[in-house]
Write a structure and sequence with these properties.
Number of strands: 10
CATH topology: Immunoglobulin-like
Structural class: alpha+beta
Number of domains: 1
Radius of gyration: 21 Å
């Protein structure tokens, strides 16, 4: 290979080894940075309790690029849940219960890790709601990187410390819901204060998200 020094050949050899590892690392899921819940269009603020809950659906291809899994293709809707505690005492999320109610009153509950893995490995997985995701054949089997992404992306906070925010994803099965967001409401119950008292339920209309001005 005329024109290449020994050092140059060695650099090419290292690049050939490291590039695949770099590409793999680049696909590792990274949780989006969460802003205070009240800054999201779809939120419910309880001033007396100093707690705000917000939702940010990842319903378009650009936002969903943070995932390696095409959740839209398997009928799952990722929803970023943000909980901000502006009070001086921690709040508990141990008994938290989330519910997504569609316009036709269908009640949807967050999918578990096992639910997502089963859906991902099903060869006939598909979605019935129109998202602009690139279509690809869904294959059986789930890679370890995909299992890690499912595990690391889900909302897992057990508490929210004073003057802080916790966030993560909930995944809802909308395979049989043509338009899951219009007219839908999200409810969060089972949030308790430091004394064990349950806070008033949180209700977030998804129309707040749909009607919000597009970000520049």
């Amino acid at each position: 290979m005329r024109g290449f020094s020994g050092r140059g050949l060695w650099a090419i050899f290292l690049a050939a080894i490291l590039l695949p590892a770099f590409c793999l690392a680049a696909k590792t899921f990274v949780m989006p940075a969460a802003e205070p819940a009240k800054t999201y269009p779809a939120h419910d603020e309880h001033p007396n309790e100093s707690v705000t809950v917000a939702l940010d659906p990842y319903d378009d291809a650009e936002k969903a690029r943070i995932f390696s899994i095409h959740y839209g293709e398997i009928g799952m809707l990722p929803v970023f849940l943000i909980v901000t505690n502006d009070g001086n005492q921690p709040i508990s999320l141990v008994g938290m219960r989330a519910e997504f109610i569609t316009a036709n009153r269908s009640k949807l509950y967050p999918a578990s890790n096992d639910d997502l893995i089963r859906r991902l490995s099903h060869p006939e997985a598909r979605t019935s709601y129109p998202l602009p995701f690139p279509r690809s054949k869904v294959k059986g089997g789930v890679k370890q990187e995909q299992r890690d992404e499912i595990q690391n992306s889900q909302f897992a906070a057990r508490a929210v410390e004073p003057h802080s925010t916790q966030a993560g994803f909930l995944f809802f099965d909308v395979a049989d819901v043509p338009t899951p967001l219009p007219g839908a409401h999200f409810y969060l119950t089972g949030v308790h204060d430091a004394k064990g008292n349950e806070l008033m339920y949180f209700e977030v209309p998804l129309e707040k998200y749909l009607s919000a001005p597009a970000k520049p």
